[in-house]
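Working notes for the structural subgroup meeting. M.R. asked for a predicted model of this chain before we commit to crystallization trials. I am recording the input and output together here so anyone reviewing the notebook later can reproduce the run.

Input as submitted:
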Amino acid sequence: MGRLIKWILILCVFGFVALSVYAYVGPFFGVKFDPIRSPVSQSIQLNEI
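Returned structure, recorded in token form:
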């Protein structure tokens, strides 16, 4: 049971490190993390009392 927990912990740490490296190195290889922006317009009707 101890080995299983150890391997799960090691995989979690490795995954965190890999994700961090991808976040920093990704833009150098053309990966864009910016959201696509587009104007959104929505008309509303207010109830008059």
